[in-house]
Design a protein that fits this description.
The chain is an alpha/beta fold and 141 residues long. The protein contains 2 helices and 11 strands. The strands form 2 sheets. A 6-stranded mixed sheet has the order 1-5-11-10-7-8, with no helix packed on it. Strands 2, 3, 4, 6 and 9 form a 5-stranded mixed sheet that branches. Strand 7 and strand 8 form a beta hairpin. The longest helix is centred in the N-terminal third of the chain and has 21 residues. The termini are far apart.
């Protein structure tokens, strides 16, 4: 084997090893973005108003992340069980459907009328970049 062959073989080995290590790191999202969205709930009715409780904490996720409601009035309650940043709730395309900031250890609620039947994204407006989103399903009447 010549020196040139040994150098070429070493270069190829180094390139293959580098490629394998880069391929193993294909998820370049920040840690909160990699956490899955879990849970679903259907609103319960109390005194003629649908009720949904969402837990927020330091994982930058809503729990549950999918909620199903019927057309009409719904009260969304955010319970912050974390110790960090505040969170809120806002339905994309429905600016009146908003729960104001809830701070660690606190609870905030807001009652609004659901948008038209369909599927909507809801977000924490402060942590959208961290993937803090969910799905609101409004069933047909």
């Amino acid at each position: 084997m010549t020196m040139r062959t040994v150098t070429a073989a070493a270069t190829v080995t180094a390139v293959v090893a580098l490629g394998a290590s880069v391929a193993g790191c294909s998820n370049r999202q920040a840690a909160p973005n990699r956490r899955g969205h879990t849970g679903s709930a259907t609103a319960s009715v109390e005194n003629g108003v649908q009720q949904v409780t969402l837990v927020v904490n330091d994982t930058f996720r809503f729990d549950p992340s999918t909620i199903t409601v019927h057309p009409g009035k719904v009260t969304i309650t955010l319970v912050h069980k974390g110790s960090g940043a505040p969170h809120d709730f806002s339905v994309d395309g429905a600016p009146a459907d908003h729960v104001p900031l809830v701070h660690a250890g606190s609870t905030e609620s807001q009652t609004f009328t659901t948008p038209a039947p369909g599927t909507y994204r809801f977000v924490c407006t402060l942590h959208l970049a961290q993937g803090m989103t969910g799905t609101l399903v409004v069933l047909p009447g």
